[in-house]
Amino acid sequence: MFYAVSKAKFIYSDEFPLYNIHNRRQVAMKIAITGTHSTGKTTIAQEAAEALGIPYVRGDKAVDICGQLFPDKPIDKLTVEDQWELQQAMFKSFDEAFEIEGSCVTDGFHLTCIPYGLNYTNLQIQRMPGYSEFVTDVFDKAAQFDKIFYLPPEIGFEDDCFRPLCQKLRMDIDEMVVDLLSGFEYKARTGNIEERVARILSHTGDKKGLLDNYVALEGLPRSGKTTQGKILKERYGDDGPIYFCERNASKYMKEFKKIRKENWYERSKELIELNVQALLYDMESNNVIDRLQEGQIVVSDRQKFTVHSMFGALGVPQNELYRATYQVPTPGRVMYMNIHPQLSVNRSKTTNQISELKSNIEFQHQVQEIYTNLGNMFGFEIIDGYQDIKIVHEDLIQRLGVEK
After folding, report:
1. I want to staple 222 with a disulfide (CB 3.0 to 4.6 A). Which of 226, 279, 324, 347 is the partner?
2. What's the predicted TM-score (pTM) here?
3. Strands lying side by side in the sheet with 297-300
4. For residue 156, what pLDDT band results from cuts at 50, 70 and 90?
C-alpha cells in the first residue's frame, strides 16, 4: 500500500513524534494491557511503560509457570486438575502489579484466567471445588486496575512453541475476553506499535497524541454525516481550524462501486481491500497528517469503522476486519450520528439513495449492533441524529472545541 510505504516513517519519526510529553503523572495508576495471545501485549506494555516513565511488570509468565509445575507437559495436554492449579498460579503472578508501590504497566490481567481455563478444559474447570469463589476473586482483582486496554487480534498469529497453533482457540479466547470486559470500563487500541502506545498515553492524560484531532463521523446511511461535513467545509474552508476531508473518486473507489453492484457477499474480501486502499488514498490526498501537524482538526465521514460495521454485518469476522484495516490510522475521536435503522431506510428511499443493503432493515439493525459494540470499545461520542441540522452542527462545533 503506497501510504504505508510513503508515510509511515514520516508519521512516527523523531522529528515529528506522534505524542509529546507533558503533565507528568502525580497519582499512582495501575495499567493493564490485555487480549488473547499473539496480539502484542508484552511489546505494547513495555513501550507504554518506557514512554510513561513507570515500571513494566511482567505478567505473562504462563510458559515459566507451566514449565515449573508440569515439566515437559504441553499446556493443551494438562488435566482439568492441572489447569486449575495453573490458573491459580497465574492469578498469583498477576498480583505482582499490586505488590510494587506506585504506577506500573503490566501485560498480565487476572480476567484472562477465566477464558484460558475454560477453553483448555472444555469448560470442565468449573466443576473444581472453589472455582466459583475464584471467579469472584478474579473480577474483584480486575476491577482494581485504573486503566484497562484491550488489543484486538489484528496482527498475524505467531507460533510461540507453547500454545497450540490453533486460530480457533485464539479467537474463542478473544471472544470470551471481550465478553468479560463488558463489565468493566476499558478501551480498545489498534494500529502499529507507535499508534497503539500513543493512544494509550493520550488516554492516561500524560501525552498529547497527533491523532487526537483526527475525527471520524460514523453512523448508519443517511444519518447526516455527509451533510454535517458539507456544512463544516462551507464554514471553515480548507485553511480554517477545522478541515473536512474531500471524498475522492479514486480508482479504488470506482472499482469498489462497480463490484458492489454485482455481489456484496461473494466478493466481500476484494471489496474490503479496495475500501481500505480508498481510505488510505483519501488520507494521502487530503494531506491529513500534514494538517494535523499544522494544528488543524481534521474530520472525515469515511473511515475504518465503516468497514467494520458494514462488512461485519455481511458476516466477515471482526478479527479479519482488524487485520484488513490495520494500516489505516485509527481516529482519535469518533462522533456517532445516532438514528434508528428504520429512519435510515426511510431516508434512503426518499432521497433516491437506495440499494439492496440500504433498504434491508435487518441488515441495518446488524450494522447498528456492531457500531454499538465498537462504540463501547473505542469510546464513540454519541450525537442525537434526530435533531435539527443546525443544532447537530453546533453540537459538533462545541465538542470539537472551536470558537463560534
Report:
1. 347
2. 0.87
3. 242-244, 297-300, 214-219, 333-338, 381-384
4. confident
